[in-house]
Amino acid sequence: MLTVTNHTLEKLEMLLKTTGYKVRYEKGNFKTGACLLQSSRIIVINKFSDLESRILAISELTRDLDIDINLLDEKQLAFLQQIKQTKLEL
Question: Rounded to whole angstroms, how far apart are CA atoms 87 and 77?
């Protein structure tokens, strides 16, 4: 389970940045708290969401992304595995 801290959010953002995705916080009328623009590799997070919702939205999108693990260092790879395992625990 991921802890709800700013550090976790920063780790998620860095993981995505390393793999070529941009995370932006903007207002939007999407219901899930996040939106993925596939062609431009941009993830838009509802800026009015609380910390827990932001972490949940980004981690759910990260699980479904096809991430090149060769771009990640050991810590990021372990963190990605932890994110993918949380789906099994839910």
Answer: 16
* pLDDT value for 36: 80
Phi, then psi, of 36 in degrees rounded to 5: -110, 125
Domain ranges of the chain: 6-89
Q: Name residues of the chain where pLDDT drops below 50.
A: 90
User: What is the reported pLDDT for 87?
Assistant: 60
Q: Which residues contact 13 (CB under 8 A, 6 or more apart)?
A: 23, 58
Mean pLDDT of the chain: 87
Provide the β-strand partners of residue 22: 42
| CATH code of domain 6-89 | 3.30.2010
pLDDT of residue 89: 53
Give the HSE-up count for residue 55: Cα atoms under 13 Å, Cβ half-sphere: 16
